[in-house]
Specification:
By secondary structure, the chain is an alpha+beta fold. Helices cover about 15% and strands about 25% of the residues.
Length: about 375
Amino acid sequence: MYGADYAVVTIGEQTWMAKSMVRQDVESFCYKDVLGNCNDRDRFYKWKQAKDICPEGWQLPDSSEWQTLFDAVGGQENAGKVLKSIDGNGSNGVEFNALLAGYMNSMNQYKELDNKACYWVADGDGTKIVELQYRNDKAYFVTVQAGDAYSVRCIKRAGLLSSSSAKSSSSVQSSSSAKSSSSVVSSSSITASSSSVGKVKDRAGNEYPVVQIGEQYWMAENLNYKTEGSACYDDQESNCELYGRLYTWEAAMTACPDGYRLPSRNDYTILWENANQMNGGSRPQDALWVNGTWAPNADNKTGFSAYPGGLWKGSYDRWLMDAFFWTSTPGEVYPTTHARSLHMNELNAYLGQDDPKTYMMSVRCVKN
């Protein structure tokens, strides 16, 4: 079925659709196969569909057209900030309304919701996208693998540019009338009862906010200090910007900034008790999770701001589903080869689980 209307916007000398294609009468995908994610975010298309999906009079933009857009909004270094929606940590200064909808990879795994907006580029022949990131104001051209599925933005063909500089509506054939703005709370809107008490820098100069939770002082972001025994999820450096690095237990033991340390199992027990009190004795993990990223009841009352960064256990796993944090406490059964960890997901939380020290997990640091 066709029939959706799309708002359009003129930016400089170009006219763009002000939301992504949502046509569903061709092979396409919604994040985690949930139709509501297509309605609130974007629909994903593989290259075969993407290159021909734009309606008559419109086309898939090539790299020079994307670059012209970036130049029109002040340059590539700041284009991401201007093009991203307000929910996506942007200013939406030209009403482009880029949503951090993520994408689907060639293994049919959904990635990067609330972290990246990814759009096909025509002249890449299925190997190039434009990427906007939550934690970065820059716009990137990125080389990708065949078989992935990404969002599609269409540009009006040369010679058919609109004379209006204001946003107008255009009837463009599509599958549904999806909303152009997101109703999902993004990771930019954090609600915390505890207050920020300053910042701390790691040995590379990276800066982290610090929150007081009860009598403890915690870094409110995952550690992103690059050291031997650490890696970014999927070996992609961009994944470290929001989710921090993953560390072996040995690397985690020495990675925290001066004045901070890897928390013990007892430190996490105290944190858990404080979170439990804040949430009225029910589901303390909700008080630790960032709003809207992965758990429907998350309120982040503690300001701890946990993200589902997954882990490495011979291969990368559980991205955008689970959070794993090392403790400094050795394992109970095999203390030489195992250590305790905190594991949280949408349904459950486990404090004191034993895992091999060769696994790689996230690190949060607590003040000495």
